[in-house]
């Protein structure tokens, strides 16, 4: 079947996955207001295109965290990717490598981080702060030793949000899928009515991160540190003061605080406030190359994609994941040209309007 856009791959993935695994991937927290708002906010932003521009030799290449990428896109961290395909993170990392974009290895990956990193490309490592600080910093060391290029420190998960779909399903990991980077015990596999075993497991393992945690990570690695989950302007400015190389403006895909503002709604204000002091990326709701263009116009240097990449993985393994990135490349190239831009940097000079 020909897939012409990411929505086509979403439908294919929904057909391919068991219902409770689809809910684990697709769901948000609470009433899923923030999950829906991520798309609503993007749909209300309109770009003002420029005309009569020179468009020969246009490119989608961009600099992301100091290195060239084929697109201003990175793959977001997503836990337990063997839920979606037997090869899980290995197939996903190969697809990102072949497409020329960074791939973020999750603390809760279902393949050890060293095995994923050896695939090559541009691996980043996402860190959740654990109750045992030594274990957290050991993960940072392992990531650096494995060749990861950045630490993406997720700061918006002191504990997991109430994800009602998982609770209603009594969701638990199958025995074949584990947290491969550390001994997680049996909690994530214990099925209990009205309880998410994954949330129970993270409640046992995670601790709230603080600015002191950020300082500890920075002192423990030579890698760039990116703080993921920033929404307040004040936190963005403090991240620069704390020495962060970058921030990801994100409400965790609507999976943490239900009612949290969409990242795209804060992006321009945050980008203006940090004024080049660190790189600003956006996460949440990106579904088209046109969405990427909007993020660039509002001040992002790039975006992260999570669920759509998993749709491709579920639909057709490595080939499906690669197709997600190929479709974004085609759509972004088209959107750039129609907006009068011959490059990603030119898109940052576009104006936008917000329809209320």
Structural class: alpha/beta
* Largest sheet strand order: 4-11-10-9-8-7-6-5
* CA(first)-CA(last) distance: 37 Å
Largest sheet: 8 strands, parallel
Write up what this structure looks like.
It is a single chain. This protein has 14 helices and twelve strands. It has a single domain, classed as TIM Barrel (Alpha-Beta Barrel), CATH 3.20.20.70. With 356 residues, it is α/β, with parallel strands linked by helices. α10 links the parallel β8 (225-230) and β9 (246-249). Strands 4-11-10-9-8-7-6-5 form an eight-stranded parallel beta sheet. Strands 1-12 form a two-stranded antiparallel sheet. The chain has a two-stranded antiparallel sheet with strand order 2-3. It has helices spanning 6-16, 19-26, 33-43, 88-99, 113-117, 133-146, 164-169, 197-205, 211-220, 233-241, 263-274, 289-297, 307-338, 344-347; strands at residues 45-48, 62-64, 67-69, 73-75, 102-105, 122-127, 151-154, 225-230, 246-249, 279-283, 302-305, 351-354. The two termini are 37 Å apart. It is globular.
């Amino acid at each position: 079947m020909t897939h012409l856009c990411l929505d086509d791959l979403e439908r294919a993935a929904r057909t391919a996955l068991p219902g409770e695994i689809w809910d684990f991937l697709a769901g948000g927290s609470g009433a899923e207001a923030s999950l829906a708002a991520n798309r609503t906010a993007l749909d209300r932003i309109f770009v003002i295109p420029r005309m009569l521009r020179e468009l020969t030799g246009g490119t989608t290449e961009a600099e992301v965290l100091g290195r060239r990428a084929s697109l201003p896109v990175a793959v977001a961290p997503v836990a337990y990717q063997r839920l979606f395909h037997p090869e899980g993170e290995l197939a996903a990392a190969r697809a990102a490598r072949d497409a020329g974009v960074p791939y973020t290895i999750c603390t809760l990956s279902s393949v050890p981080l060293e095995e994923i990193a050896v695939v090559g490309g541009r691996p980043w490592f996402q860190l959740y702060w654990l109750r045992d600080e030594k274990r957290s910093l050991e993960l940072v060391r392992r990531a650096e030793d494995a060749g990861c290029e950045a630490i993406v420190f997720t700061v918006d998960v002191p504990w997991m949000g109430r994800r009602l779909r998982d609770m209603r399903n009594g969701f638990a990991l199958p025995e074949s899928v584990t947290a491969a980077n550390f001994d997680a015990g049996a909690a994530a596999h214990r099925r209990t009515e009205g309880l998410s075993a994954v949330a129970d497991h993270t409640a046992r393992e995670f601790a709230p991160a603080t600015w002191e945690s950020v300082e500890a990570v920075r002192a423990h690695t030579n890698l760039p540190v990116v703080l993921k989950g920033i929404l307040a302007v004040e936190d963005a400015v403090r991240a620069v003061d704390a020495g962060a190389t970058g921030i990801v403006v994100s409400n965790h895909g609507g999976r943490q605080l239900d009612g949290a503002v969409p990242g795209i709604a804060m992006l321009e204000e945050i980008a203006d406030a940090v004024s080049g002091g660190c790189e600003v990326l956006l996460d949440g709701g990106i579904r088209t190359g046109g969405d990427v263009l909007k993020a660039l116009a509002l001040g992002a240097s790039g975006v992260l994609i999570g669920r759509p990449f998993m749709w491709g993985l579920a639909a057709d393994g490595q080939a499906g994941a690669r197709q997600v990135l190929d479709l974004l490349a085609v759509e972004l190239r088209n959107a750039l040209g129609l907006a009068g831009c011959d490059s990603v940097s030119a898109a940052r000079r576009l104006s936008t309007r917000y329809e209320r």
